[in-house]
Amino acid sequence: MAAQNQAVATLRWRDGRLEMIDQRVLPAQFEYRAYRSADETAEGIRSMVVRGAPAIGCAAAYGVALEALRLRNTSVAEFSAGMEKAFEVLAASRPTAVNLFWALKRMRARWDGRAVGAIANTLLAEAHEVLAEDIRINRAMGAFGAALLSDGARVLTHCNAGALATAGHGTALGVIRSAVEAGKRISVIADETRPFLQGARLTAWEMVQENIPVTLITDNMAGHMMSLGDFDAVVVGTDRVAANGDVANKIGTDMVAVLARRHNIPFYVACPLSTIDLSIPDGSAIPIEERAVEEVTGFRDCQWAAQGVSVRNPAFDVTPAELVTGLITENGVVHQPNRDKLEALFSKR
Ligand code: MRU
């Protein structure tokens, strides 16, 4: 079924199952896939049916709840062993987005080793809360970020940090949506985002659905267009921010940040507090996922690279804090982020 002005619920709970939009087939097809266990949910995260840091966190929370529901009539020993396995398989699904580990820690604290019975419903309620809270946070970030964009701003974004990457509204695209809701005329430049094409397929789709003006470019056009004065700001999302303010995001983000600094364009990162990892001193300690070479040598059934060529496919890169004009969080904007400012941000909670 082709999507037509479809309200985006990236994840939803239906008939005792988790349903997630299959983001691998958008925009040609709009369809939900159903998940009944932690194993299935982990596979949905790994294969990128669901992607984007906050959405991965929500999916993981539901994965834990699904497993508790599935095992609720088993023995205490079986339940505990099954739950431990669920946490393990979900934690191994993707390494970079810290929201995954944040959500698992939150679910584990709820479970607390307790056995069977009512705990399954408690875990499901917690997963619902993770989802609802994500939308509230994105709206708060959106309001802070919208104030940074002037009327008429042309905003470059990389990858997809939209409703599809979250429970709804989005982080970077949430900032844009909130600015539009506030009456500002914003136009978006979406770069294609090789190799998985989240910009061309997902960001462009979201913006077209809502009639927010959007122009698609390939990744290698950004520098030229910045030199022409075509962008007023860059706003991106992130998968993990280290304690010193270094930002991991989709591969290619660092390149955009370097260009933005060269051309005096502000570079903002929309970032819920759940994406800040104070346990990691700087970006060099952030695990960078390497994905299948087939994502680089072709797309779906079409293979274009020379057979036998050696290939690298790091899925994320790290933008140093010094290139970040501001981190937009639900607690406010942190200009020129550093360790002291990030620690202070958490004490405001
Ligand atoms: O590999 P993906 O598609 O999961 O990467 C997503 C991104 O890099 C997003 O920019 C990031 O998760 C921020 S999502 C609000």
Automatic annotation (TrEMBL):
NCBIfam families: eIF-2B_rel, PRK05720.1, salvage_mtnA
Annotated protein name in UniProt: Methylthioribose-1-phosphate isomerase
Residues carrying the site annotation Transition state stabilizer: 159
Pfam family of the protein (one): IF-2B
EC number(s) per entry: 5.3.1.23
Organism domain of life: Bacteria
Function: Catalyzes the interconversion of methylthioribose-1-phosphate (MTR-1-P) into methylthioribulose-1-phosphate (MTRu-1-P). Also catalyzes the interconversion of 5-deoxyribose 1-phosphate and 5-deoxyribulose 1-phosphate. Part of a bifunctional DHAP-shunt salvage pathway for SAM by-products.
Gene: mtnA
GO biological process: L-methionine salvage from methylthioadenosine
